[in-house]
Amino acid sequence: MAWVWVCTSCCRQLAEAVLPTPTGIGAEERTPLLNPTPASLSPGPSFLRVPGIPNSGFSCPPNNFVSSGPLSGGCREVGLSVGSGSTWDPGATRASWPTAVLLADLEQDSRQGECALPGAAPAGLAPLKPEASQSSSPGPTNCMGARVVAEARMRDTDSAGPEPKSWLPHCDGGQETPESGRGQLPTVPELPSVMLLNGDCPESLRKEEGPTEPPRENGLDEAEPGEETTGQEVIVIQDTGFSVKILAPGIESFALQVSPQEMVQEIHQVLMDREDTCHRTCFSLHLDGNMLDHFSELRSVEGLQEGSVLRVVEEPYTVREARIHVRHVRDLLKSLDPSDAFNGVDCNSLSFLSVFTDGDLGDSGKRKKGLEMDPIDCTPPEYILPGSRERPLCPLQPQNRDWKPLQCLKVLTMSGWNPPPGNRKMHGDLMYLFVITAEDRQVSITASTRGFYLNQSTAYHFNPKPASPRFLSHSLVELLNQISPTFKKNFAVLQKKRVQRHPFERIATPFQVYSWTAPQAEHAMDCVRAEDAYTSRLGYEEHIPGQTRDWNEELQTTRELPRKNLPERLLRERAIFKVHSDFTAAATRGAMAVIDGNVMAINPSEETKMQMFIWNNIFFSLGFDVRDHYKDFGGDVAAYVAPANDLNGVRTYNAVDVEGLYTLGTVVVDYRGYRVTAQSIIPGILERDQEQSVIYGSIDFGKTVVSHPRYLELLERTSRPLKILRHHVLNDRDEEVELCSSVECKGIIGNDGRHYILDLLRTFPPDLNFLPVPGEQLPEECTRAGFPRSHRHKLSCLRQELVDAFVEHRYLLFMKLAALQLMQQKASKIENSTSLENGSPPSLESKSEDPLGPEAGSEEEGSGASGLAKVKELAETIASDDGTDPRSREVIRNACKAVGSISSTAFDVRFNPDIFSPGVRFPESCQEEVRDQKQLLKDAAAFLLSCQIPGLVKDCTDHVVLPMDGATLSEVMRQRGINMRYLGKVLDLVLRSPARDQLDHIYKIGIGELITRSAKHIFKTYLQGVELSGLSAAISHFLNCFLSSYPNPVAHLPADELVSKKRNRRRRNRPPGAADNTAWAVMTPQELWKNICQEAKNYFDFSLECESVDQAVEAYGLQKITLLREISLKTGIQILLKEYSFDSRHKPAFTEEDVLNIFPVVKHVNPKASDAFHFFQSGQAKVQQGFLKEGCELINEALNLFNNVYGAMHVEICACLRLLARLHYIMGDYAEALSNQQKAVLMSERVMGIEHPNTIQEYMHLALYCFASSQLSTALSLLYRARYLTLLVFGEDHPEMALLDNNIGLVLHGVMEYDLSLRFLENALDVSTKYHGPKSLKVALSHHLVARVYESKAEFRSALQHEKEGYTIYKTQLGEDHEKTKESSEYLKCLTQQAVALQRTMNEIYRNGSSANIPPLKFTAPSMASVLEQLNVINGILFIPLSQKDLENLKAEVARRHQLQEASKNRDKAEEPMATEPEPAGGPEDAASQPQAAKDPPSPSLQG
Fold this sequence. Notes:
Layout: E1 3-4, E2 144-151, H1 203-217, E3 233-240, E4 242-247, E5 254-258, H2 264-273, E6 283-287, E7 290-291, E8 309-314, H3 319-333, H4 339-343, H5 353-357, H6 361-368, E9 409-414, H7 422-425, E10 429-437, E11 442-448, E12 451-455, H8 476-483, H9 485-500, E13 517-518, H10 527-535, H11 551-560, H12 566-595, E14 612-615, E15 618-622, H13 635-656, E16 661-662, E17 666-671, E18 674-680, H14 690-693, E19 694-696, H15 709-722, E20 727-730, E21 736-739, E22 746-749, E23 755-758, H16 780-784, H17 800-828, H18 833-849, H19 854-862, H20 865-881, H21 886-899, H22 927-957, H23 966-975, H24 983-992, H25 1000-1024, H26 1031-1043, H27 1061-1066, H28 1085-1100, H29 1109-1116, H30 1120-1131, E24 1133-1136, E25 1155-1158, E26 1161-1164, H31 1170-1184, H32 1188-1206, H33 1211-1226, H34 1230-1248, H35 1253-1268, H36 1272-1289, H37 1295-1310, H38 1314-1332, H39 1337-1352, H40 1356-1374, H41 1379-1408, H42 1424-1434, H43 1444-1467, H44 1483-1488, H45 1491-1495
Parallel strand pairs: 4-8, 13-24, 16-23
Antiparallel strand pairs: 1-2, 2-3, 4-5, 6-7, 6-8, 9-10, 10-11, 11-12, 14-15, 15-18, 17-18, 17-26, 19-22, 20-21, 22-23, 24-25
Helix pairs in contact: 1-13, 8-9, 11-12, 12-32, 17-20, 17-21, 18-21, 19-22, 22-24, 24-25, 25-28, 25-30, 26-28, 31-32, 32-33, 33-34, 34-35, 35-36, 36-37, 37-38, 37-42, 38-39, 39-40, 40-41
């Protein structure tokens, strides 16, 4: 199937609703993916345009679906720069041509502990625009997408991993480049080092791990069949875009640029979004009198060519079309109204960037270019200034001018006279509407097959005859224009504003993002929402064959789509992603309906908590222990945890993606204190007993166990990437049964013949630190830390990330052991097998201590390239020896035994997930294997404590990771495989750390997270006892007890006279598990805080020293507003946007009116775009090596692929745009950098949240690019916004704040606001000193920045004092001869001269009075160029002038590295991430020329 490379510059802006149906109907109602019309699955990406905003578009699939994954903060990008001196320095000569050199400051993701590789760009790489730049060259000629038919090699299904790409289609539609054939894209072995997504969802990387592990583990076996790659042939065909003329009734004809791959439906979409045609929905397009099919591609339409005229023909309405039309009109009327975003409806979410940039940056850029030094008001609000204690909440959501609603109509709603009686149906009446115009005129409107007209009905009298004026209009908008002048005027203004908004503010996100605050909104009448609420929207699915969607069939069919080559894989991934996002939306709505009591149970006679539900073909169950299923595992607590573990299992098996093995669509929803699991339904499962259905696994935790050869074969393929051991267990008849998963994992063959696995809650091995087993002794590291501790449930598992890290660690150990012995053999050349055997036991004993000792940990963290080069060498030694020499085989055998490998000829570590499972028994013959497996689990538990947690604390100390709130801290822990239950241990280690002060921010975030998680646990059970009518009172009472200083808040019970005593006793439909419905009202703050401290001790094993919120705030330096944000995000509470007086002792902070809503907290699978991800990684690797242009093209390519799979909005697209912006900035193309970064900010706000730490980062990058484009006031307001958000999310005392304040101080210095500038710079100096130590190079730079401002103020004494401090640091850290030290020394001389001159002048004045002859004093107002240079330095972008000789050295070094990589790639595909740490190229001189990087942790600005 051919696939089209979309030229991004030819796409225009996105239509409001990018749906296949021309409606704004909700997620489930969109045309289902598996439409009988095959054309609807056409892989061509669509172009969607909005008139009036040319060339700022992007490509996106026809279906508007996109996803918000976990934070992509772990991915740091590379900042390096190219350009002649700098674009603003005209004095730079050709001789000192600088070249891209990467700062070590800009390290890649800390998890791999890598040092970024400084590479060299070709010498001639001046500031250049890459051909692939997005929307860089407007105009119709650009509409050429090269269609690429890439026949990739078949992917081996066992290791469903992507193959290396050896082709690179261009994105500019230009000619095919000679290199676009084979070998264009050397695949860099260090790919895992450049991570895009380090989320909760480890599957983003599992794809690669599939293929990389087998060769490693079978490094000494024969190659797997199917591994050899056939080359990829690439055919590039030019497809030229063309323009057609559109002729619509009532307006002048206009030209429209189209591409042959578009579908006719996409032109419909464009017309429905265009300002002058947006009011039409029911029309068809005709060419020469022939109607065009909706789903056909334009290239298949005969006679369609440049200049063809397409006529818009109005079609007769049906009931469905009439409803769609009314809904579309409603969407147009509400298009600027943010209420859907505040209410968390239809994947709308908030964005506030335009408030701070006054509209589109690109346009304002052109306007403001000349006004560089116009006076601008730089004074920030008081609460943003350093040292302010005030933390207001209202500025979080500033009032957007466009939100002041332009009232077009007062009411538009369905009439009470619906549906039309039979005789009126036969006159063509479809439905009736009731409208009150802005002029207070009440009218009744008939929607008929021919269009809309007024009828003579009133509220109480039905008269369907037409009223005057007898005006029949095909569009409701035209009719309303006739009868209401206000409507006509305001509707036109509204549409003008709508099309001016950036499309990223309007497109739906793939998964719903909820806002935890919202302003007080008037509740308006809304017919569409009203209808949605009462029909459950199922009525809207009438246009789908078979009424409701068969979710299971859709989910499984998309997985079965072919995936042999890139176009097929893109199509498949897009389909999988689309169905998943629709399923998640449907499951969330269903779960809320279940808890709110709107769904009938399928077992209504049972007790409430035992009930199960089916709604919209989704099965719902509650998180309670039904029928004592989890009695041995912790009862209800285990039943609550099991769905989350099961979801992790589903996520993992989906990522391994084995053909023929199917998992259920699974979504876990926490809502109002309950946990609901939503699953797709296996065909036929409801018609038979579970006992009959299960043909693999156990339904009673291991008593009866069955197996099945087909399941063993399928699961065997997953066992290697998931490190699961194939093993035997005994059933109740003492028969051996072979399994390749845990016993709980059940296999069921559905009526559709597919092999399903479910109940994957024990996919990963148990965590022995939280599972005390009588008679088992844990290693010393564990017992020292107070383990094993008994936990509330027995389902604690290790995370997949931990299992992977542990296996990596063991692999290194294996290499060292084997190579060491081989070398000894070679050295001695003495055949002495006894010495070998004697050498074996010590290595075995060392198994538990040695590998896990601190030195092994530090080895893993910090082993440099040299050590790992050695390991590589060793691997080669081992490989070359293998099979020839019996002694070397003996060596391998010993090494395998020492590291616990299950094979004796190759490294292969796997876990048996059933070890220590209650009720599971193993046959006698396996006892030795079981003993080894137990030891392996103990070692893994010790590894977590002795390597992973200390490694995390070290990374935090070095500021390699910079969490800012609870979510980012959890993220960082999970990436290292540390479960949240270890949070107390992490905090203990932070407290004991010698660098305790430098970890102050981590400690505060950790304590805040500990308190809010403990509060969340209590809140969950607290809410279960609350009736719906008392919900807002109960939540406000809880918040008062949790956060308010008011000593005895009283709960407001629902008014008593409304509660009917008689009916209350008999009502059976109480909420699940409800006890006394007013028990919640007696909670007091003292009791709540006592419970929080108790919960923290029991769950996290951490002692909190506080009895009230005020003591906690005092003792740990927390902020109440931050705690409020954390608890609201964790529990789904939405509160009113206003200032809360937390500290008032006279009245409680919250009333029931302040609690606006409670939202679900949803966990779901995040399907990945694997090919796009690899392009992104290759691009990052290229950039790391300094090949900016190639890197830029690859990343543009990745952006295209991401857009193709995810649609326009996704967290990974955000990372892509950020890196592109960075590259364009470095290459001197500021406008392009600004445009990409603006998209990144909007996307981050929409997909991650307006105050997410990632959004704060994006704001800072955007401010830098604005400053470089001379938009000074915009840059300042963006920086102030970032500072406000940081204060709200964490507070002032964070290492990131130093960077932020340096940025603000420098910009203020540039606009000559010296006093204000000093306040920020001096604060930055204090924060840097605290977190980096007084001798750090960052602090030296901070001193220098402060000195410059004092110099500008002519306060030379202070300037000298600061510069001397800086000079001292440079001298001690870098030595006298370093250029930084020399620069500082020069600057000191210059300051001294100025001070002396000033003193002379003063003396002269004192001596001679006013007649003194004063020489003019030289006060240096900073030039913009010098300020920008400093901004680049602090943000980690350095322009380093290199001599020709340096250049040659660098190029040689890069070439040498490249050869090494190529050589090693063939031998050792599965090199660890740790094994790819290159030393900084260019020798010590280069490292020294990067002082910041040389000794200092990386700059936070480059984060992800």
